[in-house]
């Protein structure tokens, strides 16, 4: 009887040890995976915004704040004029986090002051990702 | 462990590919815009990608931390699509070269996948390619 009890006890300790190890591993995998996934989404969003600016700028009044707003919306919501209550492509991303710099013939879109919140860790993004496209106008892509 | 490693390494490679693709698209357009039928145009087009990879707003890879250095630019003739036989990196005479292809590549670091590689190298090649065409007054992406 005593032998059986002691075996149950060691199984419990083993389980506890394995749980600590495994939960640590899973947490790490989640953090890294979620960070990569979010950053990848941001790269594509920033590219979409910069390309949108590149296509629209030659036919738009770039001094109009509405133009900058539509570019920023393209990054944050995936469309230039999102409906009320639209969800950002990345959780927590706000128009304030997106910087648009228009040169004489280029549009640069940069993410600033945004943190990827992977619950157990936070990755601060200052000035990345950034994408610059030349103005082209027209075109489907 | 192996599956987790696979996920992390492949995820990182996929992310690097996205970054290189955004760069290749922008670089191909910038290069195509500079083509004007002259040798100077070709020279300018060749420099355009490097300019996007430098400066305070340089596009980078590996979560925006490393400069893009593996850039190959080539040129081709063609009407609606590039003529595959005419691709050349160092063309003699600008002639009717209208298409620009930019291939951006990087050696993505791998941590877990190393165990499965026959050569056990610590990096894997990731590349992205983009083709743009010069049209009157502007340029567009074709591939």
Outline:
With 141 residues, chain A is of the alpha+beta class. Helix content of chain A is 48%, strand content 17%.
Decide which structural class fits the backbone of chain B. Answer: alpha+beta
Number of domains of chain B: 1
Distance between the termini of chain B: 38 Å
Work out the helicity level of chain B. Answer: 25-40%
Major sheet of chain A: 3 strands, antiparallel
DSSP strand count of chain B: 6
Q: How many separate helices of chain A?
A: 2
**What is the averaged pLDDT score of chain A?**
89
User: What's the overall geometry of chain A?
Assistant: elongated
Estimated structural class of chain A: alpha+beta
Distance linking N and C termini of chain A: 75 Å
Helix content of chain A: 40-55%
Unreliable parts of chain B: none
What overall form of chain B do the CA principal axes indicate?
elongated
Describe the structure.
- The complex is a heterodimer of chains A (141) and B (143).
- Chain A is an alpha+beta fold and 141 residues long.
- Chain A contains two helices and five strands; from the N terminus they run ααβββββ.
- Chain A has a three-stranded antiparallel beta sheet.
- The longest helix of chain A has 55 residues, at 2-56.
- Chain B starts with a helix and ends with a strand.
- In chain B, the strands form two sheets. In chain B, strands 3-4-5-6 form a four-stranded antiparallel beta sheet. Chain B has a two-stranded antiparallel ribbon with strand order 1-2.
- In chain B, 33% of the residues lie in helices and 27% in strands.
- The mean pLDDT of chain B is 89.
- Classes of the chains: A alpha+beta (141), B alpha+beta (143).
- The A-B interface holds A 25, 29, 32-33, 35-37, 39-40, 43-44, 46-47, 50-51, 54, 58, 101, 108, 110, 125, 127-134, 136-141 and B 1, 4, 7-8, 11-12, 14-15, 18-19, 21-23, 25-26, 29-30, 33, 52, 57-60, 63-65, 138-141.
